[in-house]
Design goal:
This protein is mostly helical and about 280 residues long. The chain is built from 10 helices and no strands.
């Protein structure tokens, strides 16, 4: 379900680049940002009015609420207050993983179009290449989101970052238009898988009693990476007149993220009969 809901972001990534490109051609990038921002604000506020806090508000029950959850994906981690969660090593490991993910995802979303146009490819093609990323992001969210439910979110997060790592290695030597389209198709799948695993993995690592604030704090790591990564890459480009060093740095950051994922384990309560088996299943 997270994958299906998150697919909305992929649809936005699909339709936004061509629209933004036409707006920039008609106005300028500053006015285009204002127009897109106003549209986003209006659509978000209107859509939010249809959300309900609980299924009971529309006379329904939560899916699976009357079922006994026997598999590991529904086995709850111990419920801890947020102050104790923040004091655990697992929290900080996951926060840094999300920081790495924010950097490697948004370095591409921000800089792939300038990189493509810098080597002589038109802005229209650059926008269409970015739109391909939106299409395959939807595919990644649904396929890897489903796989996360069945195989474990930790495994699928590692798979997603590995896909993006492979995309960066391909990008380093890409010069032709078809190579960029292939890159966008592969990288988008990795993005979709990455963003879909975050929310359920927070629940399975830290429980549900402080889920909202814990997810917000973990998401902050991704947001910081999304802001700092592109800024640093832009600075590197200004110095070197090339994105190669910035993209190579993203490869190293992806490797760090993969190593840290291997260290993630759920907080196991003392009442768990077989904690080692639980940790194995969550992996």
């Amino acid at each position: 379900m997270v994958g299906i809901v998150a697919a909305g972001g992929g649809i936005g990534a699909l339709v936004a680049p061509p629209i933004a490109n036409q707006l920039i051609l008609a106005f300028d990038w500053r006015m285009s940002y204002i127009i897109i921002g106003v549209i986003y604000l209006i659509v978000s506020l209107v859509a939010a009015q249809f959300l309900k806090r609980d299924p009971a508000a529309i006379g329904q029950t939560a899916y699976g609420a009357d079922e006994v959850a026997n598999d590991v994906n529904h086995r709850e981690a111990p419920s801890l207050p947020v102050r104790k969660i923040v004091g655990t090593r697992q929290f900080w490991i996951f926060l840094i993983v999300q920081l790495c993910a924010g950097i490697i995802v948004h370095n591409i979303l921000v800089h792939i179009a300038p990189h493509i146009t810098d080597i002589g490819i038109s802005t229209t093609i650059a926008a269409s290449i970015l739109a391909v990323t939106g299409i395959t992001t939807i595919i990644g969210e649904i396929i890897l989101g489903t796989a996360g439910d069945r195989k474990g979110n930790k495994k699928m997060l590692a798979v997603s970052i590995t896909i993006m790592l492979a995309g960066y290695l391909w990008l380093l030597n890409s010069k032709d238009i078809w190579q960029f389209y292939l890159f966008a198709a592969v990288f988008g799948i990795g993005i979709g898988g990455c963003v879909t695993q975050q929310a359920p993995l927070v629940a399975r690592l830290f429980g549900m009693s402080s889920y909202g604030i814990t997810l917000a704090l973990i998401s902050l790591g991704f947001t910081i990476g999304a802001a700092a990564g592109p800024a640093l890459s832009g600075y590197i480009f200004d110095i070197t007149a090339s994105y190669q060093t910035a993209f190579l740095g993203s490869v190293g950051i992806a490797v760090i993220g993969l190593i840290l994922i291997l260290l993630l384990k759920p907080l196991v309560s003392g009442s768990t009969e077989n904690p080692s088996k639980q940790e194995e299943d969550y992996s």
